[in-house]
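Table 4 source record.
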Amino acid sequence: MLAEDDPTARVRDNRTLMPRRLLSLAVCTLLVAAAGDAGASGLYYTQRGVRPLGRGGAFVAGADDIGAIWYNPAGLADAGSSVLVDLAWLNFKSDFTRRTQVADRAGTLYNYDYPTVEGTTKVVPIPTIGGSYQFGDKKQYTAAFGIVAPYTAIQSYPLEVGGQPSPSRYALVSLDGSALVIAGGFFAYKPVEWFRVGAGVQLLTGTFQSTVVFSANPPDRLIGAPEDPQYDSLSQLKVGPIFTPSGNLGMTFVPHERVRIGLVGQLPFIIDAPAKVSVRLPTAAPFDKAYQDGDEARVRFRLPATIGAGVEYRHPFTPDVNLRVEASYGREFWSLHDTVDIRSENVKLYGITGFPSPFGVAPISIPRGFQDANLFGLGGELAYKIGSYRVDTRAGFNYSQSAVPTAYVSPFALDTDKFTVSIGGSLYLVSNKLRLDALYARVISSDAIVPPEEAKVPRINPVKGNPTKTEAINGGTYAVSANVFGVGMNYKF
């Protein structure tokens, strides 16, 4: 919204107030976006894997193929020598109706609703690729490798709605170009039939790209309206290459031939990566001769450690008909994601009217406010025969708490409490060595309502290297829905 008085006159009187905020704001806004969401409650929007998600993500105790590298590496002891490839598409949609609280000249507060903006995702297949080799005189050892990508919503929002600047532009324009995978080597050991243990060494690698608009206008209408479009600056960030190690450890107990108990732990990912920043400077008069020199920065933040447990019951009705049902629990320690720490390395601005040239950027630490979250899964699969072909039918249900407190929900950190209902199946061919998988899952998210007076995601204005209080950009109503479609194959030698 524009101020009621003439912002141009204020520019002439206050040009020296702007320059010290511009570069810090650009770098800060972009690198906050890099932190994103992570986990089924926060970077990973749902549980992953075509077969495991078909069971509602309840695949900790029952893990017995290469999907175990994500859920419980001890399960690799039952994967044999095999290869697995699957692909899934996360069809994600969101609606954001922004609402702000505005004070008029008399100080009276009133709410202003913006047009609804829709976020969408492209058709991008998300892979699982892996192989395992079993050896030893009793086949007690299994070595495996794998590459997985998180089920992440790579969203885009329009820059304009109805010919006006988009209400979501200060939070996110696009994540197109992001490509992150977790590669790892794993080893499982089964010394006796009732016990398996497995561990993995992982590497989060790839690049993260985001496009966002920041406002170079200071608060309190010192120069013009807080969101005057002539102070908008389209900015792009590329974080990477990212090389972040981590690891996981799992165990499976078999106290009875029909019962399995699984435990798993995942270490956190601590990201400390270089970044490239590109800023299209505002069109406002103080920037007529301004230009950017240098584009290097560095970003550091943490993604959570997790723990999980599951209990699976197996019931053989006949030699050809077997039922497996599992209940699982997970906890993601998102409170580790407490800040995003940013350091500009050589980015400077020159030629801004009324300010010394060049101008550098102080270190910035952005509070994120994330919280620990719980996940619950229930699912299973029924194996039977149709003619001479083995068939598996599976279904599952999953509930995930949000890792993002309501006050911090935004078009970028768009995570709410959600339910996932899934169905899937498999067809076995080539003497049951080849398994073909299919999946459909529906993610049902509760709407998030962020009252403007409670919203806490600001337009960053780090005058002294840290954010100061500004009008929040994330107040409003969020409606989210998603579908997951997947296919895969597993071949056991």
